[in-house]
Amino acid sequence: MPSKRIKRNQPHKRQESIDDEDIISDLPRNVIDCILGKMPLRDAIRTSVLSKKWRLNYLTIPQLVFDDQFCKELIDFAKKKKTRKFFNYQFNEIVTNSLMLHPGQIERFKVCIPKFSILGYPNVNKWMLYLSTKNIKKLTLEYKKNSVRHKLPPHFFSCLDLTYLKLRNFDFAPPPELKGFLYLEKLVFFGVHLANNCFESFLSSCPVLQKLHLRGCSGVCHFNIIGSKLKILCIKADDKFESISLENAPNLTKVTVALEKAVIGCLIWLSLGIVWLKSNYFV
Amino acid sequence: MASSTTGEKKILTLKGGDNEEFILEESLVLQSELLKNMVKEERVSSIPLPSIKSKTLVKIIEYLKKHAELTPSNKEEFKNFEKEFVNVVLEELLDITVAVNYLKINGLLEFCCQAVADRIKDKSVEAVRKIFRIESDFTPEEESEFRKETPEAFEGDLDDTTN
């Protein structure tokens, strides 16, 4: 039903704001944080010289994103200065400082780590330590170089409030004492090597996991997924991957399995639930 | 006055800042966390929103209707609508953003903030000051000192226009 609009006799309209009045600096703080979080970090940093009110605004952005674009701009800058070391130093410095100077909550942290010279290795473990004290919810850690896999820093396993996790080019070997990520809803692994026999038990320690994406992962041939919350499962081109067995997954609505080559004996066991197989489904 | 034929749909009146009244289905306003709580907990049928200009409220109601009609098949159309929705003069966009924040319509808040952010992105400091009428209270020495702290943020081609 369309809504009706009733016109009343309008009182004299309030005068629009005077022409030279600042129209943004006094917006509610969470709105300013949200606006700053929606632009590349470089643009947000530039707002720090607008006026005294803006001086520290960019430091409290709840999302810290150091993505490919951030790297590209920094590399362009380093090229002008003709020093690669400078880039490494700056990258590390900017990420570390943004975390150390951050006074509030950090909701989301994303970093795409480019190729580094040995001299300027990034302080990933230190970042994780800070993030774990900030109750980080959404975390993306990516190493750009595909041929090398990196160890997860020990403090990573202290970030227990994660709801979203994406890792690229890591070795994933959770310590035996890890109780699991109790709030994790979405897990994305690209090029991650899964240490033997730990992935299944890790999955079962994520009780609210709804979405699982694995692409180009290795280390696991067979695994059982036992989870009543899982809704979406997507597995692509995983080495040596032979079978998945799903047990007690009544919420599963979408399964995509695409293997590089169909492996004989690849078996997908769907015991319960309505499953819609999207494409590239080899048996 | 506004009883529906089915007798099922509840009707709600929103009163904008200049006393203009808007009558709409209660289900539409449930997208706003603030109004949802008011409707559910206090069972009100008329809600005064004196801090929101009627012009802004018209826009927001227009969005709520479109959003309520969103289905997988008209996604594209909705996207175009959203694009047009934020294609307004800056003062109006900021009014909508603040109102949406107050009403707690989270998806729309994110979208409006993105639209404001897009007007700052790639602009020079001077242009941003002009666009939002921000007056610098730094001395030129202070400003150049601060710029030196993060030189990479000020490098490259930045847009000096206020468009």
UniProtKB/TrEMBL annotation, chain A:
Family matches, as InterPro entries: F-box-like_dom_sf, F-box_dom, LRR_dom_sf, LRR_FXL15/At3g58940/PEG3-like
F-box domain: residues covered: 21-74
SUPFAM superfamilies named in the record: F-box domain, RNI-like
PANTHER family assigned: F-BOX DOMAIN-CONTAINING PROTEIN, F-BOX PROTEIN-LIKE
Protein's recorded name: F-boxfbd/lrr-repeat protein
Automatic annotation (TrEMBL), chain B:
UniProt gene name: ASK11_4
Key words of the record: Ubl conjugation pathway
Domain SKP1 component POZ positions: 11-68
Family assignment from sequence similarity: Belongs to the SKP1 family.
Domain SKP1 component dimerisation: 107-152
Purpose: Involved in ubiquitination and subsequent proteasomal degradation of target proteins. Together with CUL1, RBX1 and a F-box protein, it forms a SCF E3 ubiquitin ligase complex. The functional specificity of this complex depends on the type of F-box protein. In the SCF complex, it serves as an adapter that links the F-box protein to CUL1.
Subunit structure as annotated in this protein's UniProt entry: Part of a SCF (SKP1-cullin-F-box) protein ligase complex.
Residue spans of biased composition, Acidic residues class: 152-163
Pfam families, A to Z: Skp1, Skp1_POZ
Protein name, UniProt field: SKP1-like protein
Pathway recorded for this protein: Protein modification; protein ubiquitination
InterPro entries, alphabetized: SKP1, SKP1-like, SKP1-like_dim_sf, SKP1/BTB/POZ_sf, Skp1_comp_dimer, Skp1_comp_POZ
Stretches for region Disordered: 139-163
GO biological process, one term: ubiquitin-dependent protein catabolic process
